[in-house]
Structure formats: structure tokens, C-alpha cells
């Protein structure tokens, strides 16, 4: 039967059709509440504009509240749209079908849960198993003999003061673990230690003072390598964001673990992005992986997408950012950027806007919250030991703006300061009244979900 002939529309006596008993099971009994009063008033003023949808055997599929309102108003006849291909009697899928005919109805949290359970009642808990197929080719793997051994000597007595200073810097940055060596490097420059002690040396002590040079940075890398391998520094304190790992350890040891994990997470962890209600779409872009631990917690708090470029952003970064913007339905985007103060760091911010605007047609404004010359002066930041490259095509314009070839890395700024600046930049692009209202809505929804979860657990006898 075609879609065009599947329905027939007729005027019938109101008593000739019957509400589906299953409707009360899913949505609860219809009551004469404030919402019903509004519906009755609307139908009284404008008439019943949308027919009641019923099955071939006369049961209401969609329109139970409208049917009830018409009863209150004393209707003798009502328009119905009859679904000739659907019957209630003998239909095992009828409960599920009712939910499909009421997708736009204003529903309680409990109703939404019941609908979802019906919708996914036939979900296959072993779905992922079907992806694991035996390899098409049989291979005999041969182990390789390892030649030699690896040994890293512990940090010796001459470098213990250097190690203590590094460990103190790591402890100060505990809230931002795992760290990059670069972050520890800049922390040490606040109170430079000696890289080694030489009691009998005729050289002045400051010769061994830690400096903002490639040589000293190399000494720090070697120091922290030895300290971690020999248990003198916490292995978890330092990470290398340029070498991502994918452990794929989300499997289950047994059925009990699977069930326990799912029951523990049942109706737990609800959240809703307050960005849905905002007038502008906000995104954050960082130049390098070492900023992730600093930027990610702030972006998570505000549900603002974070992208990391490892230098200039690539086509996939701008493509995905543009897709998120269009999906948001907003008319404008704000892009917040953190990058080094060097020719490339300044230009990549401009390139981000040009890419989004000219290649993807996105209306975008941007803020660059660090590093700025004002921050360099306020914090008396140490320059990077790599000055602007003479081969850079942007060197001339950079020198014209900054007055020199000196550069500054964003890691030179205190992490907590960067987080404060990022928060301020995000909030300046939000309507905070709308944000607060969205947050309160989530709290109220979560309270209702918690109540419903307790009721369901009780009904299940758990």
C-alpha cells in the first residue's frame, strides 16, 4: 500500500474510536492540568486543526490529549486520519509504535526513559563481536633476539641540587600534570639552580647556573630522563603529547563486569551543553600539544570545542570547526587562540580566520589571548632561545611590530594565569544570563532523572 492511500480522513462519532490503554503505560493517565486547560482553550478558539490518528481497528495512535479535550468541549464528531495498515489487536510492536507516533510531545523525564527502553528493547549487547573476524591470511610470527642491554645511571651527587630544583618545579605544577619538559624549563628560570656543583672548580659558580639556552634545556631533558628511569621522579609527572597512544582497553573481563558497569552508569552522568542556547558559537584553538592540559579543563567547563594545531591548523581542523558551526545553527563564531609570540604564532591566528572565512564561508571573529607583548612586559618573560628565523617570510612584518627578532613561547606564561585568561575570553563571548539559566535547567533535569532512576530501581526489585 502506498503512502498516498495508506491514510483515509473522515468525520466520525467521537464514541466510535477508543484510546489505546498502552498510552497510559507510557505517558501516564491524562489529567486536567494547566497544560490541558491551554489545549482546551486553543481548540475552543480555533477548532481541532489536526485530525486524530487511529489504527484500522479504531484505536488512537496519536492525539489522546486532543481527544480528551474534545470530550471536555462536548464534541459529537471529530476528524480522524485512519492508518489502514496498522492494527492494535495482535500487534506485538504496538507499544513501540505508539512512541514513534508521538515524537514531538512534551514529555517528562520518566516518559523519555520509557520510550527509550522500548525503542532499544531489541538492541544487541554483543554487536561489537561481529566486527572481530579471523584474519584472512595465516601468518607465523617470529620473535627477534634482542642484542645488548639498556642502562641509565641515576642522578649523581653533583646534580642532586639541580634535580631537587626540578622536582620542586614539578610539585608546584601538580595541578597541570602531566607536564612537558618545556613547562618545567620555564619554571626553573624563575629561580635558576646550578646544573651541577664542582667544589674544586676554579670556574665561577654562575658558569653552571641554569640559563635559557639549548644547552641547559638539553641538560634538563637528560636529568629528568635519568630521574624517571631510576625512580627519583614520578613517572606520571611528565608526558609527551607529540606521541599519542591508543591502548584500546575498553573490553570486559566477564559478563558480570559488563552488567555492573552498565547498571552503575544507568541514567547517571546526564549533561547538556549550555552552548545550545547561546547567540554565538565559540571555539578555542591552541598552537601546540603542550597546551592541552592547561586549556582542556577550561573548555570542558564551558562545553567549548578545543582544537590543537601543532603549528598551523590543517584542512581537517577548519573543516570540522566549520561543520560544528553550521550544526549549531548560529549566525556568527568567536574563535579564541593561544599561540607563541613569533612570526608563525601571530600569522597562524590570521590564517585560522582566513581559512574559516574564505575557504568555508564562516562568519568569524577572533581573540588572541596569549602571548602578547603586554604579557611579556607584565611578567618579564624569558625569551625563547630560538629567535625568529631569518628565513621566515614573515620576519620583516614581525620585526616591524615587535621591534626585534626576540620570541616568546606560550609555556612561559604561568598555567593558572593562562586558564584565567581563557575563562575570561570565553565568558566575554557568552550571554551569561542565558548561560546561568541553562545551567539551572540541567540541575533540575538531573534531579528529576535521579528521582526516576530510584523509582525504576525500586520497581525492578534491586
Q: Any idea what the shape is?
A: elongated
User: What is the CATH top level name of the largest domain?
Assistant: Alpha Beta
Tell me how many strands there are. 8
What is the average per-residue confidence, as pLDDT, rounded to a whole number? 85
CATH fold-type name of the largest domain: Dna Topoisomerase Vi A Subunit, Chain: A, domain 2
- The percent of residues in helical segments reads 40-55%
What order do the helices and strands follow? HEHHEEHEHHHHHHEHEHEHEHHHH
Describe this entry's structure for a reader:
- This protein is α/β, with parallel strands linked by helices.
- Helices cover 43% and strands 9% of the residues.
- It folds into 3 domains: 117 residues, Conserved hypothetical protein from pyrococcus furiosus pfu- 392566-001, ParB domain, CATH 3.90.1530; 81 residues, no CATH class; 152 residues, Dna Topoisomerase Vi A Subunit, Chain: A, domain 2, CATH 3.40.1360.
- The strands form 2 sheets. A 4-stranded mixed β-sheet has the order 1-4-2-3. Strands 6-5-7-8 form a 4-stranded parallel β-sheet, sandwiched between helices.
- A hairpin with a 4-residue loop joins strand 2 and strand 3.
- Helix 12 crosses helix 13.
- The chain is elongated, with a radius of gyration of 32 Å.
Give a brief rundown of this model.
The chain is of the alpha/beta class and 462 residues long. It has 17 helices and eight strands.
Amino acid at each position: 500500500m502506498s503512502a498516498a492511500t495508506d491514510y483515509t480522513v473522515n468525520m466520525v462519532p467521537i464514541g466510535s474510536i477508543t484510546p489505546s490503554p498502552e498510552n497510559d503505560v507510557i505517558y501516564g493517565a491524562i489529567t486536567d492540568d494547566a497544560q490541558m486547560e491551554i489545549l482546551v482553550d486553543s481548540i475552543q478558539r480555533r477548532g481541532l486543526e489536526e485530525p486524530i490518528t487511529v489504527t484500522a481497528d479504531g484505536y488512537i495512535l496519536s492525539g489522546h490529549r486532543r481527544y480528551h479535550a474534545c470530550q471536555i468541549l462536548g464534541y459529537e464528531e471529530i476528524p480522524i486520519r485512519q492508518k489502514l495498515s496498522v492494527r492494535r489487536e495482535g500487534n506485538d510492536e504496538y507499544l513501540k509504535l505508539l512512541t514513534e507516533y508521538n515524537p514531538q510531545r512534551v514529555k517528562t523525564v520518566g516518559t523519555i526513559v520509557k520510550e527509550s527502553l522500548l525503542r532499544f528493547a531489541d538492541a544487541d549487547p554483543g554487536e561489537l563481536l561481529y566486527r572481530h573476524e579471523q584474519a584472512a591470511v595465516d601468518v607465523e610470527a617470529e620473535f627477534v633476539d634482542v642484542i645488548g642491554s639498556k642502562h641509565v645511571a641515576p642522578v649523581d651527587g653533583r646534580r642532586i641540587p639541580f634535580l631537587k630544583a626540578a622536582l620542586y618545579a614539578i610539585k608546584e605544577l601538580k595541578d597541570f600534570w602531566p607536564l612537558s619538559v618545556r613547562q618545567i624549563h620555564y619554571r626553573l628560570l624563575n629561580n635558576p639552580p646550578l646544573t651541577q656543583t664542582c667544589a674544586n672548580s676554579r670556574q665561577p659558580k654562575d658558569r653552571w647556573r641554569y640559563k635559557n639556552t639549548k644547552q641547559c634545556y638539553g641538560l634538563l631533558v637528560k636529568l629528568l630522563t635519568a630521574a624517571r628511569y631510576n625512580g627519583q621522579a614520578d613517572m606520571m609527572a611528565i608526558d609527551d603529547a607529540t606521541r599519542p597512544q591508543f591502548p584500546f582497553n575498553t573490553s570486559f573481563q566477564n559478563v558480570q563486569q559488563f552488567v555492573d558497569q552498565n547498571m552503575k552508569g544507568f541514567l547517571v552522568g546526564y549533561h547538556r551543553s549550555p552552548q545550545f542556547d547561546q547567540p554565538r558559537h565559540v571555539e578555542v584553538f591552541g598552537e601546540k600539544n603542550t597546551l592541552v592540559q592547561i586549556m582542556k579543563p577550561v573548555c570542558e567547563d564551558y562545553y567549548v570545542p578545543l582544537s590543537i594545531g601543532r603549528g598551523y591548523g590543517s584542512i581537517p581542523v577548519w573543516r570540522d570547526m566549520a561543520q560544528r558551526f553550521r550544526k549549531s545553527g548560529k549566525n556568527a563564531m568567536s574563535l579564541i587562540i593561544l599561540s607563541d609570540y613569533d612570526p608563525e604564532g601571530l600569522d597562524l591566528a590570521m590564517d585560522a580566520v582566513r581559512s574559516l572565512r574564505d575557504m568555508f564561508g564562516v562568519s568569524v571573529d577572533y581573540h588572541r589571548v596569549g602571548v602578547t607583548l603586554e604579557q611579556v612586559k607584565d611578567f618579564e618573560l624569558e625569551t625563547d632561545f630560538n629567535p625568529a628565523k631569518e628565513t621566515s617570510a614573515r620576519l620583516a612584518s614581525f620585526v616591524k611590530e615587535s621591534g626585534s627578532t626576540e620570541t616568546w613561547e606560550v609555556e612561559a606564561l604561568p598555567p593558572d594565569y593562562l586558564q584565567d585568561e581563557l575563562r575570561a575570553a570565553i565568558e566575554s563571548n557568552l550571554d551569561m544570563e542565558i548561560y546561568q539559566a541553562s545551567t539551572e535547567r540541567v540541575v533540575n533535569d538531573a534531579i528529576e532523572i535521579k528521582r526516576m532512576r530510584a523509582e525504576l530501581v525500586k520497581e525492578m526489585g534491586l
